[in-house]
Amino acid sequence: MASSGAGLKQQETVNVDGHRLRLTNLDKVLYPQTGTTKAEVLAYYAAVAGALLPHSRDRPATRKRWVHGVGVPGDPGQVFFQKNIDSSAPTWVKRFSIEHKSGTNIYPLVNDLATLTWLAQSAALEIHVPQWRFGPRGRINNPDRLVLDLDPGEGADLAQCAEVARLARAILADMGLDARPVTSGSKGIHLYAALDGQQTSGEVSAVAHELARALEADHPDLIVSDMKKSLRTGKVLLDWSQNNANKTTICPYSLRGRFTPTVAAPRTWEELEDPDLAQLDYEQVMQRLAGDGDLLAGMDAGGLDADALEETAGGGSARTDRLSKYRSMRDAAKTPEPVPEEPAEASEGNSFVIQEHHARRLHWDFRLEHDGVLVSWALPKGRRTRRTRITSPSRPRTIRWITALLKAASRRANTGPAKCGSGTTARTRRKNGGTARKSSRCCTASPTADSPPKAAPTGGSR
């Protein structure tokens, strides 16, 4: 290894895994609040490479760079995201391209210490990767892990994130998944679980979303699954969306561009019991790694099954109350809609509801009977794509038989008379200060035990 220069122009040429790299400005301070230099950042990444690289290998890396350092609270440093690999990048850095709607990006793969050192030299403090890996010739594989991002809203803290992590762990364990926690180095906690690669990113996202909604229904004062910031005060956002193939998560063991050099650090479940749980800095992580090794190593890869989630989240005496949101939006003394007091009992029905809903904007509500409730979506008028739908709260099955006009003033949710696959059709239109006209016709399927028998030429089962 040869070196030359001094002071702020300090330079050093190093040989890393057979590749020569020129390192510059080694004593440049990248974290002013702690005085942490580029040389210390490079030393950190060299120390943790054996643990970091298994989590970044063969994944496209998006980088966040602070060329002039992270700054201080009153004067933060300039940061920019970088997806495309630099044109000046060494030819030995492995790369693959991904076609996006806006064009094609070529991403570096952080597969070895030399590439990791090259990124640190360019002040790429943060490395973000998706949950999937490239296969041979750049083929995008199915995800090999699931991630849940537990992000505290204003007024919530890391201890509450740890509580949510334990709740999610119990469900994932019953699904056969080995969840491991990582304090993110920012505000929250990430939960990782290895997968066997049999499901697509869309399928993994769907199950993660349903898990988030189930936990939100059980713990509405603690958990929120909706991204709206207005709903997150005092609660923990259970962000399931980072399982989307187009999204990324901070790589375990990556530094963070905070005002102090914190790290996305794997933790033990025992640590999460500590009420004084805190984020870790790079020096603490190096010490822990030397003594404990990679706490994410050896995760058992499991298969992800939506039915397993349903059985886990909804089974037994502590079953998920899938009508909690529906019930919270209604006053049983004012609305003719059914407002059950108890969680819905499981069922094997196969009815559906198509509801023409004359709210502030005309739209259609579509409901499928599943596990004792009607799982519901709103279909906005004028949307031509079949994929456009907005999830709305599940409804009780007894709403299938409601044909009375519902008063808009008595409700805070978008629900209305229903066109039922297993009952009558009720269409309502409000006119002249609240008067209405109703019409109905029959379009039932095979009647169920709690439905009146109807003769109909069309099917309403699925």
> Could you tell me the radius of gyration in angstroms?
27 Å
Helix content: 10-25%
Tally of contiguous helical segments: 7
Gross geometry:
elongated
> Strand order, biggest sheet?
16-17-13-15-14-20
Mean pLDDT: 79
The unreliable regions are 1-8, 313-319, 382-391, 398-462
N-end to C-end Cα span: 70 Å
**How many domains, in number, for the residues?**
3
Task: Give a nutshell description of this structure.
The chain is an alpha+beta fold and 462 residues long. Helix content is 19%, strand content 27%. A hairpin with a 2-residue loop joins strand 23 (362-370) and strand 24 (373-380).
Characterization of this structure:
With 462 residues, the chain is of the alpha+beta class. The protein folds into three domains: 1-129 and 253-263 and 279-289, no CATH class; 142-244 and 296-320, Alpha-Beta Plaits, CATH 3.30.70; 324-439, no CATH class. It is 19% helix and 27% strand. The chain contains seven helices and 28 strands. The protein has a six-stranded mixed sheet with strand order 16-17-13-15-14-20, covered by helices on one side. Helix 1 (38-56) crosses helix 2, helix 1 crosses helix 5 (282-292) and helix 4 runs parallel beside helix 6. It is elongated and about 75 Å long.
